[in-house]
Amino acid sequence: MTTITLKVPASTAKLYPKVGNKIFLQALRASVQRLITEERQELRKVNSQRRKFERKYKMAFERFEKKLPPEGSYLLHEDYGEWSYLEERAAVILSDIATYEQLYGTVK
Questions:
Q1: Which among 3, 45, 70, 72 could bridge 76 via Cys, Cβ 3.0 to 4.6 Å?
Q2: Structural domain includes residue 8
Q3: Sign (positive/negative) of CA torsion 31, 36, 42, 44?
């Protein structure tokens, strides 16, 4: 177990003996659940944008990246930059969700 020190208003500190750790753990659990929900919403938006590129080029990003000619059109390279960002963003969001879900499972 690790101790975390929080600075709270005096009025909140006065309630602590009555409510103990339970209320703080419930608040943490609710906050983590909200973070998970927000990240999933963001992931849906990112995935929607990724699918637009998949439909446009009729292939997944990995294949597109391998087939990208070094001297392509400006638009092709613009799409590559944006699509590449979306792929990276999706990976970060999925990692964050996994971390939040792990935290959610440990907060009882």
A1: 72
A2: no
A3: negative
Average pLDDT over residues 31-35: 96
Dist. CA 101–CA 33, nearest whole Å:
8
Domain of residue 37 covers: 19-106
State the Cα–Cα distance between residues 105 and 44, nearest whole angstrom. 23
More confident residue, 60 or 9: 60
Q: Which residue type, as a one-letter code, is found at position 79?
A: D
Could you report the per-residue pLDDT of 43-59, keeping only the tens digit for each?
999 999 999 999 999 99
Tokens of 33: 């659940």
- Is this prediction's pTM over 0.85? no
Domain contains 90: yes
**How many structural domains comprise the chain?**
1
Six token digits for residue 69: 């000619």
Share of the chain above pLDDT 90, in %: 62
